[in-house]
Amino acid sequence: MVTFAIFTLGLCSSICAQTNNSPYPQPTDLQQGPPLTNQEYVGLLYQLPKHPEERDRLIDQIRKRGIGFPLTQGLLSLTATKSGNDSLLRHTLEEANRRRMNPTTASLPPTTEGLELLERTRKATLGASVKMPDFLVKQQISRSHAYGQSRNWSVYDRLSIAVSYRQTAGEDYKLLSVNGMPAGENQSYGINLGGTVSAGEYVTVLTDLFKPETRAEFQVVDTDLVGGRRTIVYEYVVKKEFSRLGLGWGERGVILQQTIVGSRGRIWVDRENNRVLRLESIATEIEAGFPITAESKVIDYEWVAINDQQHLLPSRAIVELTARAGGQVEQTRNDILFRGYRKFGTDVKIIDVDEKDFPPDKPEGTDPNRPEAPPVLKPAPAPAKKP
Fold this sequence. Notes:
Blueprint: E1 2-8, E2 11-12, H1 38-45, H2 55-65, H3 73-83, H4 87-101, H5 111-131, E3 135-147, E4 154-166, E5 170-178, E6 181-182, E7 195-197, H6 204-210, E8 217-226, E9 229-238, E10 245-251, E11 254-270, E12 276-284, E13 292-306, E14 309-325, E15 328-343
Parallel strand pairs: 1-7
Antiparallel strand pairs: 1-2, 1-10, 3-4, 3-15, 4-5, 5-6, 8-9, 9-11, 10-11, 11-12, 12-13, 13-14, 14-15
Helix pairs in contact: 2-4
């Protein structure tokens, strides 16, 4: 089986990738124009079943122009029916409706406030990483694929993974089950499993982003609500020459090609708690001819209790990539739930962990913050024209 691995230098970590021929839309410049009318929106919506590629143009129009009509439950139901229950379109509509109802709250903060919040968040994130306790968590991973760029996802397996994190050793993984059956003695979560594998969603991604040597460039571009929390949205860029993010491709359990990539993306920062509640990222500068042509990541973070202390850790992640090999294009999608965080004892080894060490699994669809779609980066607002 073909294997797609996603890593950082010195530690596995899933990332996001995009090239110029990626299926993910590139940022566009905001343009002034009247808000979309209800009639315009419904007309564009009815084109989606026969022309799904028009979804990105519709989202772009909503973000550029906003909407001039109330967002009713009936309209949301029609949107779900015509778009195949596309959550990114729904989120974009809800955001546009929030701006329509309260344009003052949706306005960008002063530059000074944005810079001060970013600096507090950098210190809080790096400080929390060195105070992170040793913990154990279970990942429930649904892995899907689609041929071409159809996004017509078909689940090919479901994995249960035990993950331990130690300050002294980083992350360690144990495959517990595949499709509900206990993993065999020769099965493990890694390159030899085949398909898309990822790691490092816990501490590495955010700490690497905020380390000085990464030289990430940030810009305030938006405001939003995440889980009812008021956030400021920053767009960032990490150039390839300073990046630690990489992609790997191989067959039969052996990585045959690797490459380092840059990245660009967005973070949603809680304005009161100075912490990142959501990260969306797309990697850039993938070398020409590399089999993996695009890969994206969305991570939602929540506060969880470990040994009676609150820590901000992932609750859900979606990793998607596109690869071209043997003249065929294939997309893969890993939908990851993080469940049952608890302190991991120093006298316990990951090899001794099994399903009974975790609480019963929650039914699918019970997570209100579930990210359903890969990121589509929104552009910074155009500067105001002087009179």
